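Field reference: sequence -> structure
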Amino acid sequence: MHAHVPVMLAQVLDGLALTDSGYYVDATFGRGGHSAEILNRLGPEGRLLAIDRDNTAVAEAQRRFADDPRFQIAQVPFAELATAMNGAWGDQRASGVLFDFGVSSPQLDDAERGFSFLREGPLDMRMDTQQNVTAASYLADVDEATLRRDLRELGEERLAGRIATAIIVARDRGAIRTTLDLANGVEAATPARVKARSQRHPATQTFQAIRMRINDELGQIKRALSAVVDCLRIGGRVCFITFHSLEDRPVKRFLRDACAEDPVYRGLPDVPEHARPTMRLIGKAQTAGKEELTRNPRARSARLRIAERLR
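Structure field:
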């Protein structure tokens, strides 16, 4: 069992440029590692709104911080950032927003949540356990073509066709009931030469694809990106932590566009206010240092990108 360790904590705190009286949003609370340190640096006038759609995370937030008047928790997807802020603060905009995408260590470590291919558990994988679609119901209903597409697009799985066929055959004979059934089926469908070349478990990308599909993770990211600029005050910062290219790609695209002037006016000497960049990058993408990777190997694929609102 891994203890929960917030990823790139020092870099995030520096990137948010915290002030005593600022209003901040931890849009992916998890188990509160980032939130706890943000609160440690806020004065009595500062505020922190945490967001998570996982009821276990929300319960943890209430247990740890319910007595802190500076703290509020909203159980909504982070795509509903604007709605959560309006409910907590009215028209107040944020001094900083943090997004830490993907699945959290406690979710992976709890076999009953069904996220891990290393532990026996139910085929669940829901971040919001109140939603209807589980990994089991997805696999029960999905056709082979759709599964192949999801494995290829959301798992970036090169063996998508081969694995999809194996899963459907196993499903139809009732051989996939648990996470280990699924993981073992994917492993059996993976050629020995492929397994020998990779340091990852053969089921890594399959589990990622199913998890991302049933939780609409890319849709959540895209909607959050569309909302975040308007949620920041002028000079406010946003930090994005991503863990693989599917998460990082839309973030990079968003930042590229937000940090550029309207191409219609590109090269002109006088660019009108509405066509100027809305954001500016704060440094380059950051990765975890050697010391952190020693303590927390799960940070090895993390990327941190920071930007500031200009107008």
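Note: The two ends are 45 Å apart (CA to CA).
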